[in-house]
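Dear colleague,

Following up on yesterday's call, I've attached the two folding results inline so they're easy to grep. Please treat them as preliminary; we haven't cross-checked anything against experimental data yet. The first protein's sequence and structure tokens come first.
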Amino acid sequence: MSFSSDFFSRILGAIGFGIGGGYLGDAVARLLEASPEPYILVFTLLGILTGLILTPYITVRPIRTLRLRLIAMPPERIVAIVAGLFLGLVGAALFSLPLALLPAPFRHILPLVAAVIFCYLGVVILAMRQNDLKSFMANFRPVVQSQAISEEGEDFILLDTSVIIDGRIHDISTTGFLRGVLLIPNFVLRELQYIADSADPMRRNRGRRGLEVLRMLQEEANIVTRITDMDVSEVREVDSKLVSLARHLRCPIMTTDYNLNRVAEIQGVTVLNVNDLANSVKAAYLPGEELRVRIIQEGRESGQGVGYLEDGTMVVVEDAQRLLEKTLDVTVTKVLQTSAGRMIFAKP
């Protein structure tokens, strides 16, 4: 699509610049009182070459860049810019009335300068105060509309591909903690199907497991799942589509993807991360408490043995290297919380 737009812009630019070059060559020939044919030919060829090279950089590509920036720009910022332009034009129109009484050439130049300055100030000021403008406009919304939007946001939970493949969403949903409707957009379903059809056996198995998890979710009587055709045509990436759709519906996203989690939080979208939930519900152990663990491997330091609790918490036991494949009663000495999860240090 971009290639065709660049190509057609180059063709049109070559024609336009070529015609302009011909007229310029004729004017130069008349100025020099020379034969016009060579000048027209040379300037026409230069115009065609200039049009072929420069046209996309002054037409298609700036428009494309502006379009991508507008897509990525938050709605409240766009509203602030438009409102700033409007207020700037109103202020410039009022200020240009006394300026029009000035003698020439000031009455022709100063109104334009005032319009540029007022528009710039309006855009900059309102863009800096866009959050205050958003709060101010929210006060004028009808109560019924705001309640409907709030209820709509509470009803839906968008599911990411990663959380479906992870599979723990089924176990969480069956406990009854999730009260909203689990919403699966079609573009997430298509990505899941694409993974299930992959030539890589590992990716294919993960995709098929995700489809099986969806089937189990739909079969559960106490879980409401819905497939939706809602899409964001301006964005291609699945993660960007999810964030845009969540902002439109004002609902959270459930995921296990770290990058999606961070991007969504930056854009003000609530994220329900299953990994954070899993770390939060792990049993808390204090130094001095006793627990039972099976030593399955050697630790990093000399003499250490490593085991795991049922929730996946790593337990590092001192002086247990010689007790591999044995179950021990150990006493907790220290609990360490890391970015990878909780780690318990203990001794027999």
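Below is the second protein, in the same order (sequence, then structure):
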Amino acid sequence: MNKKADIVRVYLPPDANCLLSVADHCLRSRNYVNVIVAGKQPALQYLDMDAAVRHCTAGIGIWDWASTDEGSEPDVVMACAGDIPTLETLAAVDLLRTRLPDLKIRVVNVVDLMTLQPSTEHPHGLSDRDFDAIFTAGKPIVFAFHGYPWLIHRLTYRRTNHDNMHVRGYKEEGTTTTPFDMTVLNDLDRFHLAGDVIDRVPRLRGIAGREKQMLRNRLIEHKLYISRYGDDMPEIRDWHWPAK
């Protein structure tokens, strides 16, 4: 990210079809340093191939099928970049949609990290107007990121709504443990993300006490379960986006 903007590209595809689209683009490109960040474990598929190509071509987009703002101004923007952050964000959205059905959530997925920069700094960067259209000019943003949180702040510090952006990411925590527990150790799991939303949406602070207690209890259940069985709880391990 410190290298020249006309050379470096960084991509974080959220699923296999997006990975195929990004890889096809990178293998056809010339005179660039292309970085693709993707996991090697089986993962959920969110987009069909045509939708993946459109999403990766844009580099960033609102996922209407996961959002509940329905064209209106959201109460909160939940953004994600990377396969595991995307999984945990969507699982958090699923929790919030179940427990707080009137909450207006906008889900934003970032494939091309350079879109977060201003268009004056990188050719893939969004203009301030387009950035505000996606992330709003004043609503809270909870951003789940595959890498170090400070990088997202560094890319967006000049944006209108940067002060309302809360980033969860890798913070050098980890050990020999379960996949989900790795996210818990770094506060990047679905329960922490859902709690972040409750803490940052003003109208929820006084009415969502039971939901916050539920989230804390689920984290306790998780720790007790992995200590006993050495694996993630089935409802965590087998979670998928609910069918319509």
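For the second protein, one point worth flagging: The chain has one domain: 60-237.

Best wishes,
A.L.
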